[in-house]
């Protein structure tokens, strides 16, 4: 669990990030979860987007993906959300 100060630092870092993964009309599939796991491990912080064609809201998608990957939800704004998961072998971000 991250503290509010750590969350604020991660939010400021996420402002500069490009959207890494988009969730479309197929929703959250096993392939999407695998792709997210691959993307989050080396970076620790990723930004995702839920397209209008998806049957999920950004908050629902963030909750579902966080549960599936063990990541923490940093923020949800509109159709975008940010996830954080520390890399146990080689930490990139110091909180």
Keyword list:
RNA binding, Translation Initiation Factor IF3, 95 residues, Putative RNA-binding protein, YhbY family, four-stranded mixed beta sheet, RNA-binding_CRM, alpha+beta, RNA-binding, RNA-binding_domain
Layout of strands and helices, then pairs:
Layout: H1 4-14, E1 19-23, H2 30-43, E2 45-50, H3 58-69, E3 72-77, E4 80-84
Parallel strand pairs: 1-2
Antiparallel strand pairs: 2-4, 3-4
Task: Kindly summarize this structure in a few lines.
This protein is an alpha+beta fold and 95 residues long. The protein is built from three helices and four strands, in the order αβαβαββ. The chain is globular, with a radius of gyration of 12 Å.
What does this structure look like?
It is a single chain. The chain is an alpha+beta fold and 95 residues long. It has a single domain, classed as Translation Initiation Factor IF3, CATH 3.30.110.60. It is built from three helices and four strands. A four-stranded mixed sheet has the order 1-2-4-3, with helices on both faces. α2 links the parallel β1 and β2. It is globular. The N and C termini lie close together (12 Å). The mean pLDDT is 93. One of its GO terms (molecular function) is RNA binding. It comes from [Clostridium] methylpentosum DSM 5476.
């Amino acid at each position: 669990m991250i503290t509010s100060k750590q969350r604020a630092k991660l939010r400021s870092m996420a402002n500069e990030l490009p959207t890494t993964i988009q969730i479309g009309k197929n929703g959250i599939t096993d392939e999407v979860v695998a792709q997210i796991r691959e993307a989050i491990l080396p970076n620790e912080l990723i930004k995702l987007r839920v397209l209008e064609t998806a049957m999920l809201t950004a908050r629902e998608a963030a909750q579902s993906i966080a549960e599936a990957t063990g990541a923490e939800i940093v923020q949800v704004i509109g159709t975008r959300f940010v996830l954080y998961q520390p890399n146990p072998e080689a930490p990139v971000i110091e909180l």
